[in-house]
Amino acid sequence: MYSSLAMEDARFLWKRLPIDVKRANPELDAVWRLLQYFWNQHYQGIWQALQGYQWSPQVRPFVDALVAKTRSDMLALLSEGYSLLSPAKAALLLGVSEGEVAHLVEPAGWKQDMESGMYHTALQQAADVDLEGYENLRQLAQYMVHLES
How far apart are alpha carbons 91 and 79 in whole angstroms? Predict the structure, then answer.
């Protein structure tokens, strides 16, 4: 979901921080636990860490942006990886209650089967293809064929 390079940078930064700095700032420890959940892809832990800590006013905007980005990315992943998903599983992976799931997934085109209660996901269509890029690729291929002959 997130750049493994940035995650590795954060891990090495944590190792370089003096222990007294780590102990003096509980919010820093909360960020560290959050990063560990991301590394381990422990989605329930990610949402608990994001929503369960009282973040300072300086950090709150970043956390809110991270929640929105993580939820958006997870919704896209679920749409690609599942064709049918229970409300409980969707709630767990999206970090919301089962009652809030419909408000998140219905705008993405998911439909709920009233009989089973399961959601039929909707694979998001790719953005318009950059035809100019394809034209450049075609020209490059023609050039390579010309060089080989």
Answer: 14
The DSSP 8-state label assigned to residue 111 in this structure reads: E
The per-residue pLDDT string of the chain (149 residues; one tens digit each, 9 = 90 and over) reads 555 567 788 888 888 888 998 888 899 889 889 989 988 889 999 999 999 999 999 999 999 999 999 999 999 999 988 989 999 999 999 999 999 999 999 998 999 999 999 999 887 554 555 556 667 677 667 666 656 55
DSSP letter for each residue of 27-74: HHHHHHHHHHHHHTT-HHHHHHHHHHS---TTTHHHHHHHHHHHHHHH
What is the rounded distance in angstroms from the CA atom of residue 78 to the CA atom of residue 107?
A: 14
